[in-house]
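From the shared-data thread, chain only:
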Amino acid sequence: MKCALDDIRDIQRTATAADRFFGTSTIVVHRENGGRTPFPIVLTAVRRGAQLAALLELLAGDARAPRDAAAVRAALAWEPRHPAFELRGALGVFVGLLVAIVAVVIGLHGTTTAVTYTDDDAIAPGGERRSEGRSSASWRPRDDAVGARDAGPPSRADPIA
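Structure, as tokens:
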């Protein structure tokens, strides 16, 4: 099947798991033919498919691109960069988070705030807790304090009302 370089509209390269194992790929060449859309040209089991797809894309997209044998050999000798391991970014975030946690732990180490008590504190004057027998009565409610009785509505039998 013939196809002029000027008729190429788009080039796609795919590689299945089997293609990656065997070092091959599939190239699909979409072309224009007047107003109708013809079937694409599919090249299967192509070795160095990334290089061939890049060369076809370059030649079809740029009419001034060199088309001599040396330029074609140079384009086919090009080695595309393999995608980096995708967990590299996640590993960087994890290490950064770990460093931040360690920095906070080191920064807070040994900085407990001492509790201070005044001399007239009702529970622990001067920082020493009183025993039940020595407690000051000033903080305890008294039985004869106002409001210690039931504050319900007065009854007729209540002598105060």
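The chain has a mean pLDDT of 79.
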